[in-house]
Amino acid sequence: MTERPRSGGCVVLLSGGMDSATCLAWARRRFRTVHALTVLYGQRHAREVRSARAIARRFGAARHVVLRLPLGPLLRSSLTDRARPLRRTLSGTGTIPATYVPARNTILLAVALGYAESHDLGTIVLGANAIDYSGYPDCRPEYLRAFQRMARLATKAGVEGRLQLRIAAPLVRKSKSEVVELGDRLGVPWELTWSCYAGGPVPCGRCDACRLRARGFARAGVRDPLRPTD
Amino acid sequence: MTERPRSGGCVVLLSGGMDSATCLAWARRRFRTVHALTVLYGQRHAREVRSARAIARRFGAARHVVLRLPLGPLLRSSLTDRARPLRRTLSGTGTIPATYVPARNTILLAVALGYAESHDLGTIVLGANAIDYSGYPDCRPEYLRAFQRMARLATKAGVEGRLQLRIAAPLVRKSKSEVVELGDRLGVPWELTWSCYAGGPVPCGRCDACRLRARGFARAGVRDPLRPTD
Questions:
Q1: Is the Cα torsion angle B171, B172, B176, B178 positive or negative in sign?
Q2: Which of chain A's residues have a Cβ under 8 Å away from the Cβ of B119?
Q3: Looking at the domain assignment, is residue B225 inside a domain?
Q4: What does the pLDDT look like over B171-184, one tens digit per residue?
Q5: Which helix (H) or strand (E) holds B167?
Q6: Is B57 within 8 Å of chain A by CB?
Q7: ipTM above 0.85, yes or no
Q8: Which residue ranges in chain B fall short of pLDDT 50?
Q9: A141 class by beta-carbon count within 10 Å (0-12 exposed, 13-18 middle, 19+ buried)
Q10: Count: domains in chain A
């Protein structure tokens, strides 16, 4: 999970949000080959896939794969189940948010692992963030380390020593405003990114993701092009 | 990965083969609540799903979910790609078989983990076997332990201590003939199980899975009802 430059290939888990867009920009500077993988797992914000496509095109990903997994009915969460209300409380209160999706990052990383091994890509890049989203257990460095260790034991490429599989989470210890600062330096087109959980035609401005985004831009002193001028 | 009796709930990954059928029979004796989860990941042997449904019905699983994941085009393997020949060599030669599917068990276990947490089931039961299929890295006990460790860090239920998530692989150290002996004792209806990789209307008798099955029955001295009388 260090940020040393490397010359191999990677796959970036690209949701279309500001964190994964920043990861893609970061990966483009560090890896010779960059693929992008968007996994739709039945979440409300399918709007993000349009953003993901536009961002992958903008950064010239060698390949962008969009995968639809019909997991919604299997997993209990307010993010995959329209009948559950989105609790509008910022995390950081010590509880795990209602938007937690059981095993979400484990499922995303598992699919990315199969993809990475199939395409000889040694690194999986993920926009996990342990600071602002500290309520999610599968965004913590100790979880990511445990996944990486398991991944090396799981794969033919790992066992044979062909790929030293690595999980890179370049944002894991950054605050949202630090993400905005990094993305800005790397030329992330913020107008193409999408954060809102509510799934409307414009950001709702009230869900966790909208409020974290607004706070990040405000603290970084950067204007969010998606935000209506007050 | 011990076999102590417990009273909680579990989900069994049920492919419809003889190993997972034996696991379901085993789980019915040990857990109060038993769910079955069949994941189709684009493999040739979709025929197995009919077997899985019949077996789940026979053992009275509280719920049987069949999930289709369109992973075939993403993963490179002779099991998911019809253009690749099925190599007909028994494993045990120190190489990983061509039927290896990148991250297969990690993807199956990740989905099962999300399901287990969503339904308050503390154990995931898997028919992984490190003896006859020793070529598969994701069937080894050290891999399963690493997954279990990761799973406890990944989940809200694990972090909050509500579920002590456990991966149970009751067959992991059994030979195929020991699996036949155990399944026979537990009343597994072998005629409902399906092993062949080739996807024809009757078992091909030549693929790895058919040959391992035949050897297992022969060594256990049990007649396989699916085998034509010689």
A1: negative
A2: 76
A3: no
A4: 999 999 999 999 99
A5: strand B166-168
A6: no
A7: yes
A8: 1-3, 5, 86-93
A9: middle
A10: 1
Q: Which residue has the tokens 């010239």?
A: A60
The one-letter code for the residue type at B133 is Y
Q: What is the rounded distance in angstroms from the CA atom of residue B195 to the CA atom of residue A25? A: 46
> Residue B176's domain spans which residues?
9-220
Closest CB to B75: pick one of A76, A114, A159.
Answer: A114
How confident is the model at residue A84, as a pLDDT? 53
Q: Do A153 and B159 touch (CB under 8 A)?
A: no
Q: Residue A223: what residue type? A: R
Residue A179 lies in a domain: yes
Q: Any chain B CB within 8 A of the CB of A109?
A: yes
A137 touches chain B (CB under 8 A): yes
pLDDT the model gives residue A78: 57
Does the structure show a pLDDT above 90 at A172?
Answer: yes
**Which residues on chain B are in Cβ contact (under 8 Å) with A74?**
65, 67, 111, 114-115, 118
> Hey, which residues does A151 pair with through a beta bridge?
none
> How many Å apart are CA B99 and CA A140, to the nearest integer?
34
Asked if the model's pLDDT at residue A6 lies above 80, the reply is no
Kindly state whether residue B96 falls inside one of the protein's structural domains: yes
CATH code for the domain in which residue A69 is found:
3.40.50.620
Q: Assess contact for B49 and B72: CB atoms under 8 A.
A: no
For residue A117, list chain B residues with Cβ-Cβ distance below 8 A.
102-103
CA distance B124 to chain A (A): 13
Q: Supply angle C-alpha A51, A52, A54, rounded to 5.
A: 65
Distance from CA of B77 to the nearest CA of A (A): 8
Both tokens of A109, joined, read 């990383």
Quick check: is A152 in a domain? yes
What is the pTM (predicted TM-score) of this model?
0.89
Taking an 8 Å cut-off on Cβ atoms, the answer to whether A103 and B110 are in contact is: yes
CA distances from B5 to A172, A222, B28, B217 (A): 40, 58, 11, 28
pLDDT over 80 at A77, yes or no = no
Partner-chain contact A111 B65, CB within 8 Å: no
CB-closest option in B104, B153, B156 to A142: B153
* Inter-chain touch B110–A107, beta carbons under 8 Å: yes
- In chain B, what's the furthest Cα-to-Cα distance? 58
Which helix or strand (DSSP H or E) is residue A64 part of?
strand A63-68
**Residue that has been written with the tokens 């961002």 in this structure:** A55
| pLDDT at position A8 over 80 | yes
